[in-house]
Every structure is written in structure tokens, then in C-alpha cells.
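This section describes the prediction task in plain terms. A model, or a person checking by hand, is given the sequence of a single protein chain and must write out its three-dimensional structure as a string of C-alpha cells. No templates, partner chains or ligands are provided. The sample shown here is typical of the held-out split.
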Amino acid sequence: MKVLVTGSSGFIGSHVKKRLEKEGHEVVGYDIKEGYDVRDAESLRKAMKGCRSVVHLAALCIGQESLDNPEPYFATNSYGTFNALNAARGVGVESFAYAASAASVEALTPYGQSKLDGQLWVQLFRKLYGMNTFALRLYNVYGEGDDKGVIDKWMRKIKSRNPIIIYGDGNQTRDFINVSDVAGAFADFAVNWKSHPVKDAYEIGTGNVINVNDLARLMFRVLGKEAEIQRFPARAGEVRHSKSENPYITPKITLEEGIRRLAKFYA
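The expected answer:
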């Protein structure tokens, strides 16, 4: 099967691309790093010709950054998703899987709102045009190749004996899911989309949470090293608690195992 992956050079996109190629599928990469922009409707249409499925991952995704500079977030995440859907409809793509975000459940930043906009476009195209669209709502994805998430940042800090930062009291909770499990979910929706029931959103998380203080302790134990903890005031727009209440998949990798794998990757 021929599948187009937007954001194919990014953290999650690169894992999805590798998973699909490993399964024997032809993957068309579409990424801003390679000169392809989801704000360019004509470019998307050309790239999608002959593709049976689309995995739409391209997005700007730093919530705190979006507070100060919201415009590009809406241009890329909201309008860019509309462009991708419209292009897919125009060329007759069979299925369209979108990377929705847990940050849109309680949208406290322009990033969260822009991802919610994208999710609503996905639902609307399904209802209006009968497209096979799927919004996979991702929780806190971590793993090899990440350079923005807390686990990756702390891993590098702890290994180099530099301080780590905790904002607020550290009791905020997160549902962390390994990128390998996420890549498997997207590959399944791209290829086996007929086997999935119609839903407004599919929660891609573990259903388990850990607070930030306990995450630091877990990482210290797994790595066999500790680091100074510097505490700063809570940040505006930060979600206090995030958990997938009804996970659609059964993850294969526990948080502790995922941290061990990441430590080996950095070693």
C-alpha cells in the first residue's frame, strides 16, 4: 500500500515511516524539512496522488511557545489540517489518520486549541463527505528521537549530572506512552482502517499516570544517577492532570521499560 506521511522527518513521523516500510508498504514522506509545507494545498494534492492512505502528523507542538506566537500554530495545525483533508478528498484517498492531542481536551493554549480545530475538521469531513477519517488523540509520547519532551530532556540532564527543572509543586500527572506503541497504532489505522469502529476520537495512551515528582525518582532509579532538582513557578497554560480514560490500544511497553530503552539509545 502507498501511504503519505506528513511530518515524516519528525519524532513520531520518522517512527511511523519506519514501521510502515518495515511492513512492506511504500511511504511518501512530506515534511517541512524537505521543503514541503502543509499550508501549500497544491503541493499536498500532488504528493497524495496514488496514495491510498494518509497519516497526518505535521504540526507545531510546543504549548508554551504558542502562547507568545499563536499565528503559525493556527496556520499549520488548523488550516494545514484542512488543506490535508481537502487534498485527500480531492484525490480519493481511502483513509486519513490525524494526530490529535490530549492538550485539546482542556485547551489552555493556542496549541491546544489549534489541535482541537484540526480534530473538528477531521470529524466534519467524515460527516459531510463520508470520508474515512480517524483522530488518534495522543497523550505524552516519548522515546528515541524526541527532543522536546520532559523524559528526553531529563535523560540528557541526569546523564550529564546537570540540574533538572520542575515547574510548580510537581504533583501534576501525565500519561506517558512510548513512541513505538504510537507508531504501531498509526500504521494499523493506515492499513487496516476498515477494522476500526467509527469514533470521534481514539485515545492513544496507557490509562496510567505518574506525577512529575515520581517521574524524577523513577528516572533516578533506572539510570542509577541523581540530579539536582530546581523548582520554578507553575507555567501558564499547563494542563494539571492528563490521562487517557478509555485507551483504544493496549501498549506493549511500560514506562520503566521505555526509560531503560531510551537510556540504551543514549548510551
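For orientation: The chain has one domain: 2-266.
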